[in-house]
Amino acid sequence: MSRVRGKRVPVAVAGQAPAPPAEIRPGQSIELLKELHILTRDGKLNQDSRRKLKQVYHLYGFIEPLLDETLAARGDLTLVDHGAGKSYLGFILYDLFLKERAVGHVHGIETRAELVARSQALAERLGFGRMRFLNLPVLESIASRELPDPVDIVTALHACDTATDDAIRFALARDARHIVLVPCCQAEVAATLRQHKQTALARGALAELWRHPIHTREFGSLVTNVLRCLLLESHGYQVNVTELIGWEHSMKNELIIASRRGPPRGNARARQEEILGALGLEDLRARFVY
Q: How confident is the model at residue 248 (pLDDT cuts 50, 70, 90)?
């Protein structure tokens, strides 16, 4: 190790591969981190990738206790990642938590066939034998025999617009123990608010909350996630909502963690109905109340 401005910096030894950056956790796959563009091709971190790595570790810190709890409860676990994209979340979870264990499976669900093929090839190249990727729409996956029972944990990271709602429907249908969501681009509620804006303004001052277009978008996003949380509570989940990263890095950073803990919250469904009625969103009842 050498020191640069008081920091310990790994130094490569002649004839050996360069030492990984100090921020990388011991035992992590350097090849994986390069494939995910967290490390550059020469194995280094730049400013952008260092921020990305910090975000990944921060999210892992929220999910790791859920993995531990599930393993302790039944000695195995199945995690399904919806809207997986390039599957960086699934790969990181497998690399950090499951790689050195003999149990645990990760299934990535993605509608783009080329990303499914790429992820499966990477998993095989890395020897991640308990990762599998399926080219399925989320709703079709609910009844798919290609996914095992039980499903313990469902994740959806930046699944756009109603894809997050589809992931919730899957998790509820499969009676998942834990659900981890980072919603993205919620447009449906905002569009409905916009459609009925003049009627709402004539009815009262409440519509001032979304009169301006930027407020329509932001208020619609807020209402969407509130209705999602109430839906989860109405099915017996304890819900925690926090921020994933600082607002200076991304506006899409709301993290929703739901764990099945007991009976449904008694007034959750009634609260949903009240919100839908007050905001003129009755057209979306089937999306949020079931």
A: very low
